[in-house]
Design a protein that fits this description.
It contains two helices and twelve strands, in the order H-E-E-E-E-E-E-E-E-E-E-E-E-H. The protein is an alpha+beta fold and 223 residues long. The chain folds into two domains: 187 residues, Immunoglobulin-like; 29 residues. Strands 1, 2, 3, 4, 5, 6, 7, 8, 9, 10, 11 and 12 form a twelve-stranded mixed beta sheet that branches. The radius of gyration is 25 Å and the shape is elongated. It starts with 5 loop residues before the first helix and ends with a helix.
Length: 223
């Protein structure tokens, strides 16, 4: 069986496009008309353990070949799971994640005209709290006549905040809904945990206790 060459080439092209976009080359393309990106949440009230779904939306008349977004969240209240995009041809490009900040990037080898949902981002509610999701940044990308990736200038960021009220009551377990489109994993890095203060205290107590018992035995034998 002969290997399929089309898919690897598309992945390589998309990766190269993402790299060029990430370093923000000097080219800038002006939008044909005002473009807007904004954030919405499916609902503001959730229970512990439920999936929190937020949507990245766009109003655009300019064909794009990629987009990026950053969403800030409280890691004590929420844990990011994944992002998905139903835009035809858009492929998720994995990026290193930071605790408290979702960093998403998508690219396409062909121009796409999008008016509506760019991506859906899913979080898991960890505990009862009142928190907020904030769209830190968002950008649309196009390819210039020279073949370079460039951010689209003049893009407005509309609604940035998504307030959430998470109840401490644990939600009843429900079947996991299948996710469609190009899925991008958003697992945050594992937090480095040091030794707790009370453990250090107990070790000190045990240490001094051992020294005391040893000294008592030595002096008793000597006596």
């Amino acid at each position: 069986m002969r290997p399929v060459r089309g898919e690897p080439m598309k992945q390589i092209t998309a990766s190269a496009f993402a790299i060029l976009l990430a370093i923000f080359v000097v080219f800038t393309v002006n939008a044909q008309s005002p473009e807007t990106i904004w954030l919405t949440a499916n609902t503001t009230a959730h229970k512990t353990g439920e999936t929190v779904l937020v949507t990245l939306n766009v109003s655009s008349s300019t064909p794009i070949q990629g987009f990026t977004f950053q969403i800030r969240y409280d890691p004590d209240c929420l844990r990011p799971v994944n992002a998905s995009s139903l835009v035809s041809g858009m492929n998720g490009l994995p990026l290193p994640q930071l605790i408290g900040l979702v960093d998403g990037s998508y690219a396409s080898t062909t121009p796409q005209t999008v008016n509506g949902v760019l991506a859906e981002v899913r979080f898991t509610a960890l505990k009862g709290c009142q928190t907020n999701l904030t769209l830190e940044s968002a950008a649309l990308a196009v390819r210039t006549a020279e073949g370079f990736a460039a951010p689209l200038a003049g893009v407005l960021v509309g609604e940035r905040n998504g307030p959430l009220n998470i109840d401490s009551e644990v939600a009843v377990s429900q079947p996991t809904q299948p996710v469609s489109g190009s899925i991008l994993a958003l697992d945050p890095p594992v937090a480095e945990r040091g030794i707790s203060g009370w453990i250090i205290g107990m070790l000190i107590i045990l240490l001094f206790g051992g020294v005391g018992i040893g000294a008592y035995k030595v002096f008793r034998i000597g006596g």
